[in-house]
Amino acid sequence: MGSVPRTLELFYDVLSPYSWLAFEVLCRYKNIWNVSLQLQPTLIGGIMRDSGNQPPAMLPRKAVYMRSDVRLLSQHLQVPIHFPKDFFSVILKKGSLTAMRFLTAVKMEHPEMLEKVSRELWMRVWSRDEDITEPPSILAAAEKAGMSIEQAQELLKRVSTPQVKNQLKETTEAACKYGAFGLPITVAHLHDETHMLFGSDRMELLAYLLGEKWMGPVPPAVNPRL
Fold first, then answer.
1. Which residues pair with 193 in a beta bridge?
2. What is the per-residue pLDDT across 82-101, written as a single tens digit (0 to 9) for each?
3. Residue 2 has pLDDT above 70, yes or no
4. 7, 55, 94, 162: which sits with the fewest CB atoms below 10 Å from its CB?
5. Rounded to 5°, angle at Cα 170 from 17 and 30
6. Which domain of life is it from (predicted)?
7. Sorting pLDDT into bands at 50, 70 and 90, what band is 1?
8. 185-190 and 6-12 as β-strands: parallel, antiparallel, unpaired?
């Protein structure tokens, strides 16, 4: 009998391109490493308010660096990120509240679809410069991920319910308790220790903590096509 898989929690928001990078790398390794990956839809706005942090785009030098950094990382990690033309409107005005509530509802009702629906929302906003705030946009992402229109419509009705709102709030608060000041964070539960790693560039350190082999962002057995 093999050892019990270690639990990894990925707290993420589809408004964060770094979250997408971490998401794809962890999804590539989830069947290679002895881990159980738990996806945790989280609201980045709540993290920022709780920690007193602010988005990199609000600081001119960080904004310039972020564009270059994400461009290079997207090439290295083979994730098709392209900045939205109206970046400030997408990131700072429209936000991701409805999208993250929808993903919370997906996790509650159809957890087997969470990975695919999350990826499609990232593809819309960070690869194709498409909306993720209006109901038709969210439904389109869900359908493209393989969800039936009936399932997607039912979940969309639930985004305004107390159950979904409270669950997203609780997940965001959990990330804050782990020490989050932005997203993504990966929380590794190892024996009697818990490690919180911030960002998309801590995967080699994560492998070290797990005692697993790091084979680069695209391990040989994985086809990264998105």
1. 190
2. 999 998 787 778 899 999 99
3. no
4. 162
5. 50
6. Eukaryota
7. very low
8. antiparallel
